[in-house]
Amino acid sequence: MHIPRIRSLLALALACVCLPALAAAQTVHGRVVEAGTGQPVAGAIVLLVDANGGHAAATLSDAAGAYRVTARGAGTYTLRVERVGYTATTSAPVTLAAGETVQRELMADVRRVVLDSVVATGSARRCAGELMNGAQAATLWDEARKAVHSSVLALEGGTYRFVTETREREVSLPAGRLLNESTELHTSIGLPFRTLSAEELVNGAYVVMTSGVVTMYGVDAQAILSDTFLRHHCFGMRGGGPERPGLVGLEFVPLEGRVQPDVHGVLWIDRASAELRYVEYGYTNLRFRGPVERLTGRLDFQRLPNGMWVTESWVLVVPMLQKEGNDWNQASMDRYRMYALLERSSRVVSIEHFVAEARLAEQVVP
User: What is the residue range of 33's domain?
Assistant: First the structure.
């Protein structure tokens, strides 16, 4: 009997959240400087907040601390300055008339965010009630969100070219014999990696079975830190322990009662700087026959000298599957057996910033 082999597909990336086209030109511009020293702050998030507390526009300050945000309509706004590891600041109200341009210097707070010591193993594992377990968990979530938001703002303009090196390894089960290995270089503009949206993933798209083909998707930090993901998962603090000195974790697990495939894991954050270092995750509710605990993912982050955050590298391990039996109309995970693992990894090897015809090599990630 011939048993066809079905190879799992995968995709991973920072998904782009782009602001809609602006209909009018009510603009605020200026510089972000440190309170007390007056030194320019690069890579700060500047949010234009409307009277209802909504984000009307957002941008990053450049190397000289300069920023520019444009509102869709006239009105009264405030400007909020956020940067990873520091307390946010909010300006006095700014009134914008139709077509008006206003200049404002913004002060960035120099007070550091303080993360308490954590020795517990993560109360998020019992996930039936409160989504965010404690004020410190909410603080960790907010600091990680800042890093991801700044990355999206930096990349949505499409002025960065990324060169990434992708490796694939097929390893047999259970012996662990190398079946195949390959390496490729890829060039992309704007966003170096791509995955599905949080809405698609939480609605059952981690594992998709169509016409006998199984597709398995990874998750990125932007999805994990979205409001959609937050509604379907609990978050709690977790200590790094001796194997992760200096780190504190924000653990996430699906709400109890979830029967669809989902993810659980930890965002690991530097305790001193509150900077997001990496994310580790695994899958829940997988019924493939085989060692499903080996199906995991990881994303590593880096802050560049210009204040920009990037996903420096990622790793995803998915199953290579054989379907057992002849009834192809029965699309169920428990009818598939893992015969090998596909380990796929990718890392950014260079970043080029270009403006019009001028191109400037800005940063190389070692």
Answer: 26-108
Residue 244 and residue 321 in one domain: yes
Contact between 124 and 99 under an 8 Å Cβ cutoff? The reply is: no
d(C-alpha 170, C-alpha 10), whole Å? 14
pLDDT, tens digit, 9 for 90 and up, residues 18-31: 334 434 579 999 99
Residue 82 lies in a domain: yes
Query: Tokens standing for 72?
Result: 């869709």
247 and 351 inside one domain:
yes
- Whether 104 maps to a domain, the answer reads yes
Torsion angle (degrees, nearest 10) of CA 328, 260, 311, 351: 30
Residue 20 in any domain: the answer is no
Structural domains counted in the chain: 2
Based on the fold, state whether residues 70 and 41 are members of the same structural domain.
yes
According to DSSP, the residues that pair with 50 across neighbouring strands are: none
Alpha helices in the chain (DSSP H): 135-155, 198-200, 221-224, 227-231
Residue 94: CA atoms inside 13 Å, Cβ hemisphere, count? 28
- Checking if the pLDDT of 3 tops 90, the result is no
Q: Are residues 127 and 94 in the same domain?
A: no
Whole-model pTM?
A: 0.82
Cβ within 8 Å of residue 14, ≥6 positions away: 148, 151, 152, 155, 191, 192, 193, 194, 220, 221, 222, 311
CB-based burial of residue 37 (10 Å sphere; 0-12 exposed, 13-18 middle, 19+ buried)? exposed
Taking only the tens place, the pLDDT of each residue in 256-290 is 888 899 999 999 999 989 999 999 999 999 999 99
Pair of tokens at residue 235: 């978050």
Query: Largest alpha-carbon pair distance within the chain?
Result: 77
**CATH number of domain containing 35:** 2.60.40.10
Residue 241 lies in a domain: yes
The reported pLDDT for the residue numbered 193 is: 73
Residues 91 and 125 in one domain: no
Q: Is the pLDDT of residue 234 over 60?
A: yes
